[in-house]
Amino acid sequence: MKTFEVPVIYRSPLISAIKNKRKEQDRMKKDFTPTVLDLGAVRILLARHFGFCYGVENAIEIAFRTIEENPDKRIFLLSEMIHNPHVNNDLLSRGVQFLMDTSGRQLIPWEQLKAADVVIIPAFGTTLEIEAKLTSLGIIPLQYNTTCPFVERVWNKAGQIGQKDYTVIVHGKPGHEETRATFSHSQAGTPTVVVKDISEARLLADFITGTQPASLFYERFKGQYSTGFDVVQHLQRVGVVNQTTMLATETQAIADYIRDVMQQHYQLTPATIHERFADTRDTLCYATNDNQSAVTGMLQQPADLAIVVGGYNSSNTSHLVELCEARLPTYFISSEEKILSRAAILHYDFHHKQELQSNTFLPEQGPVSILLTSGASCPDALVEGVIRKIARFYNAEEKLEAAI
Ligand code: SF4
């Protein structure tokens, strides 16, 4: 896979060495067991795959190069480039300005942009409406484009099934930048509706089968269907695509469920199901699959707790947390700064969108086993910071250096 020039501050010699060694030993990526850092009183089990993915490194390389090559220009990002506060703050500190927040709320009015300005499209991609807006302001919309190719692959898939007259069901978070972009690209070619989870997929199925009155659809899916969507006409042939970072098991469950509903409702067989249901397989990206499989592999090991490092608004990171917290106490932190002491930690509850403090973080009695992973937008340097801080609590710095 292509390698990128990423600022050295985001790298970690420790993590790079571990990743390179695992890659050499397992080129086909079949082994999802964690790497064990045995520091005596504490064992840290590092997931097989974590940290910066292809799309994030690509976006960082383009953004930093753009800043370097345009010292005299004003540089804007449509919104956060990726969901990591450290990377976004670094860009802000270099003079980059965000035009919108992650929910699409305008921070800087369009009217303030000039044709000579540089506008960078984030890794999530953007909507056709925003591209048109930039064009109307004299700005070439895709000149500085960091849209991840795996996101574009979803748009292409939606386009392909749309051309065959299937309606596109997008499994994604309706407010997420990527899902908004996918929705926009998809609806340009075919009727499109967004479902955020399996319960919304069940609700949609009620409209497919006519169990619920059609008029209710427009209320229940408000803001999630394309202009002119006809609930009676447009749910007769469907296909499912996903936001690239959803939980793999849920994505599979939704696609299987909708296919079963179509099969039963229209009395189809496996040989004729394609008449009503497009086989898209899932459109999750490789990093989502690898990172979630690595967490599943890591969870096979006995451990006392798990730590997941990443931006609090990062979708892919929150799904790693979801997997871990189903099995053991899990702390979602943005960096080692959140670890206040051996007992106290500030961590994010993404279900209720609030940061909490726990005062029973590391068990008093050892030895302690900790599972550790991070999201696809999290610099490895932050994970190393967490490892070093924990090693200090157990006076294991020398052992860590020896391990390095
Ligand atoms: S998580 Fe996947 S889709 Fe998102 S930027 Fe990374 S590789 Fe691309």
From TrEMBL:
Q: Does the keyword Plastid apply?
A: no
The family database entries (InterPro entries) matched by this protein are listed as: LytB/IspH (IPR003451)
Keyword Repeat in annotation? no
Pfam families of this UniProt entry? Answer: LYTB
List, in alphabetical order, the GO biological process terms annotated in this UniProt record. dimethylallyl diphosphate biosynthetic process; isopentenyl diphosphate biosynthetic process, methylerythritol 4-phosphate pathway
* A GO molecular-function annotation: 4-hydroxy-3-methylbut-2-enyl diphosphate reductase activity
Cofactors per UniProt? [4Fe-4S] cluster
| Protein origin, superkingdom | Bacteria
| Keywords assigned | 4Fe-4S, Iron, Iron-sulfur, Metal-binding, Oxidoreductase
- Which pathway is recorded for this entry? Isoprenoid biosynthesis; dimethylallyl diphosphate biosynthesis; dimethylallyl diphosphate from (2E)-4-hydroxy-3-methylbutenyl diphosphate: step 1/1; Isoprenoid biosynthesis; isopentenyl diphosphate biosynthesis via DXP pathway; isopentenyl diphosphate from 1-deoxy-D-xylulose 5-phosphate: step 6/6
What is this protein's name? 4-hydroxy-3-methylbut-2-enyl diphosphate reductase
According to its UniProt entry, this protein's organism is: Chitinophaga costaii
